Amino acid sequence: MPRLHRRHAAIVAALSWFTVLTRAQAPSPADQVAALKQSLAANQAALRQYSWIETTTISLKGEVKKQEQKQCFYGADGKVQKTPIKGAAAPAPKQEEQSSRRDSRGSGRVKERVVENKVDELKDYMEKSAALVQAYVPPNGEKIQAAQAAGHVALKPATATVVRLTASDYLKAGDALAIGIDTTSKQLTEYSVNSYVEKPKDDDLTLVVTFGRLEDGTSYPQQTVLDVKAKNVQVKVVNSGYKKAASK
């Protein structure tokens, strides 16, 4: 065999062996999910040192129906404790809404009850939508690992340094969440959810989280926006004012 051909064959063989070796050393999906779970747990442990302000705004057809602020911190049991901040009351109804209510009272008791029932149902629905934000954010490592064990997790490279993890049936049957993971820093780069409030297709929702970074590198959900387009309901949660608790 000519020397040039022998050299070419040697290069091809070396590259082939390197490819096989790289694949053999690449972490499996189970390993990557386990690493993500560990990273999420470490990040949550770091967040427990902080207190912050949570501002929740619930809108219907683009109009703010409720806004509230809460002072948040982690209790000794590891759960988030929330204290309402006085003065952050819901906006007053518009003048036309007040007039409509007066008109409904004047048109009879039956119509008044119907209107009140619809308002109560809508409030309940918006509260359920807001509760879903807390159920999906932050992502739960145990639930992701359970989805992986059930074969409901897929991993694909998004960029040279980011892997996108997609998990289905994470919290509800038929839901799906997508997480972008920086393979170098092990931090989340993106997080979005497709789910529903009560019934699939009837009130499908999308949830998108924007992450921020604290001075020590800890990531936190800076803004979460949940949209239920079929019902024209939007829930926006903004976390701000992070302060490290004084060490005891």
Mind explaining what this structure looks like?
This protein is α+β, with helices and mostly antiparallel strands. It has a single domain (30-244), classed as outer membrane lipoprotein receptor (LolB), chain A. Helix content is 37%, strand content 35%. The chain has five helices and ten strands; from the N terminus they run H-H-E-E-E-H-H-H-E-E-E-E-E-E-E. A ten-stranded antiparallel β-sheet has the order 3-2-1-10-9-8-7-6-5-4. Helix 2 (29-47) runs antiparallel to helix 5 and helix 3 packs across helix 4. The protein is globular.
- Unreliable residue stretches: 9-25, 95-104
Strand line-up of the largest beta sheet: 3-2-1-10-9-8-7-6-5-4
Q: What overall form do the CA principal axes indicate?
A: globular
Helical coverage, percent range: 25-40%
Give the tally of structural domains: 1
The total of helices stands at 5
Portion of residues in beta strands equals: 35-45%
